[in-house]
Batch of 2 targets.
Target 1
Amino acid sequence: MLFFAASINYLDRQVLGLLAPTLQHSIGWTEAQYGYIVGAFQFAYAIGLILAGRLVDRLGSRIGYVIIMGFWSVASMGHALASSALGFGVARFFLGLGEAGSFPAAIKTTAEWFPQRERSLVTGIFNSGTNIGAIFAPALIPWITIKFGWRAAFLATGLFGAIWIVWWVARYKSPDGHPRVSPSELQYIHEGRAEPTAQIPWSKLLAYRQTWAFAGAKFLTDPIWYFYLYWLPKFFDARYHLGLGSIGLPLIVIYNLSAAGSIAGGWLPTAFNKAGMPMAKSRLYAMLVCACLILPIFLAGRVSSVWSAVGILGLATAAHQGWSANLFTTVSDMFPSSSVGAVVGIGGMAGSVGAVLFSLSTGWVLQSHHGYTPLFSVAAASYLVGLAFLMIVALGLRRADVPAGSVRYSEPRGPRLRD
């Protein structure tokens, strides 16, 4: 269910990027205005994460995810009402506000359902759904647009959320209340760890080095993924003259590679850990491998062959998704599950702020005719800088010293102990 939620999230999100060259010609916005439209989404995403993390911590994944999915699906369909750059900016703002809750809810659900050593692989699996959405979009959106018009494309993608909500409400329960989860399974999920269940106030979460380490790494690397989503169709159109009818296959190849990278990157720490490496060190080594694989991206704007660019970009997006699966999982490594949603929200907000700044800069760089090479060069360096920041500030992913308040133990059916 998390996999398909991530797929719908990115299907809705990518429609604008695919239609950007078409809409730019028909509506007449400039590169800078497109940067503002993308920035509106990311600014709202940052605001939404302030609320979304606490929403899912307070209401739980089951109810919280329904509210989140419903809101962004309506906002997605609202794009069909836009007829100017301002109208698209407003629609993107509300879409970002709703979509902000998807990953905090998914990471919290993962922390509830899986033991620590399995979470990065699980995150990699559901996070690969973002790539399925990105793969499905180039196959579906051009066909709908050519057949029925661009407004129909926004309406069609918004309907998938309603189907998912029915499925989620009918099937999802937390492991503590699930009738098919045995006591031994629940003990395996908790791994005998005692964790505070009381929520930690935001003011206290911001006092932890681990919060700032995660937020800093997101600030540096999230903008690169948004750049891929919103500017790759424009890059292929400008550099190789690939229009709406021919852009699909290159993007499908790139996002297929990124889906594989998400799962492989999530599996890598488990392999290192089984070889005898501590879990925190395994996570950091996996992130280092991903950061190094992204370095060739600085060549993407210089190669003359479309498929050479596709190969370089596919490797970079695959490595980003592997990086992202591990970066998300560092939160549940460092914090109790009761605070995971809030910390992911804080980090996501920082990533969105970085993305707003990068989107505005991208519009200005391209409008000034500097081309894509400076942007790809920034993308190449961001991950190694982010990893260094994470390692130094979080002290090697050291567990946050959260005071024990109300504590949950692994005995699922017996009396609860309190300190």
Target 2
Amino acid sequence: MTKKRSKALDNKCPSCGAPIKFVPSLKKWKCEYCNSEFDLEEMQKHNNASNIKYNQDSIIDDYDDYVTYTCQDCGAEIVADSQTAATFCVYCGNTAILKNKLSGKFSPDAIIPFKKEKQEAIDAFVNLAKGKLFVPKNFTKKDNIEKIRGIYIPFWLYDIDIAGSIDCNGTKIRSWSTGNVQYTRTEFYKMYRTGSMDFFKIPVDGSKRFSNDIMNSIEPFDYSGLTKYNHAYLSGFYAEKYDVPSDEASVEARRRALESGKNAFLDDCRGYSQKNIVRNTLETKIKNKYYVLLPVWMVNVKYNNKSYIFAMNGQTGEFVGNIPLDILKVIVWTILIFGLVFGLVIAIAWIL
């Protein structure tokens, strides 16, 4: 196991020097101590925000298992693994932005800042369990709610063109009756479709830590909200750097483009009972790629040694969640219902 030491960064309030955080609802940075508010331009004037891309030499090597950082506020040691780009000091609670983790080849092209507040994520998490009889009693307890955290997840976005053709066999089936005789007529056709399509900003999760199924479930993001990357947006949140390289992620992007293109061509073959592709020459070409950070509220709750993950799109509010069943509750309610039904049957039988 290797270990390196570096410096952590935290943004300071230009008025009082206290740590300052980005507030999604204000789209500004607000100091909790003096209540001062600043926009990005004002933060940049005070050297609290920068788009400078660090030299490759400053990147922490990918083979490092963990790195220690010195908190700029209390001097405590912060330990982070090789993928963490923004975390918190466990002693003073201030954000520790590990800028060298997002420099050089790991420097994002753009970011979508958080739009949804933590309380909105908490409300969605609590409402997920409301009205569900067999949810464990402690599923939404305070300890679990406090685990909800905002994380900037690394994503690759691809602009992809597809072009080519498909050959299909199609069938049309028609049935009718004449007197007592039932007739069925099946017609066979050959179809050909050719053309091209453009896809813009196809997203692929750039982190192996997070389930692709969960990340896909909270899509889509509104990419009109993309803004030039600035480390100041990380204040108050966690962040990860990618560990899925672009060439690996592009395989999934190409697959999604081809699947969508194929379905679009098939949809154009209307009026057939069945359609089977016999030849497909569709090919992809990547026009542009972007490395971006996208906002996600997330909590991982453990119940009976199994993890249940809740995630909410930090921009749109779209969420997905897995809720466990309290087996004891299920058994108790089954016995109660069985007892009530059995008692009702006995009562009816006695009356009759």
